[in-house]
Amino acid sequence: MSKLNGLVLAGGRSTRMGEDKSLLRYHEKPQREHLTELLRPYCSVVFWSINAVQAIDLADSNQLRIVDTFEVNSPLNGILSAFQYDAEAAWFVVACDMPLLTVQSLDALVKGRNPAKLATVFYDSDGQLPEPLLGIYEPAIGPILQQAVADGLHSPRQILQQNDIQLLTVPDVQELININDPIARAQLGF
User: Fold this and answer.
1) Could you tell me the pTM of the whole model?
2) Is 57 annotated as a binding residue?
């Protein structure tokens, strides 16, 4: 089984939220730091996936980070950049906008991991489609992601749907809730 690196997807533009979602505080610290702590027990190392602007702001940080290197306006940019950094590792990917995520779901992914498949992910909150922003991507999917982008496909969900992946049922569907705007955040009580 390949080594498992962690990747906190934090490089989005956060246009709907109006501020960097990775810096929002749901657990008394910025979300990217909280998720790093959640991933650390499962991974060899944990990286933040960031954009070029964030890279400037984090120039003095000791946190391991991978700067988006592709011209893709999608979370796929961060995942592809991670595989460019280390194509031999599996990547445990977590989006920074899932404030209800706990070790319960992380445990379920690790226990349900099937390294013979290209990725191990949960069904989404509707129980119909793969949830691409919380899962383990095996090294074999790297070239498939690159080809998909070359073919103009930028949706990680669609790529997962078209390939041989391990799909699991999330222990608590609430943990998959994405908070993308101030109204959703307020409704959540934060």
Assistant:
1) 0.94
2) no
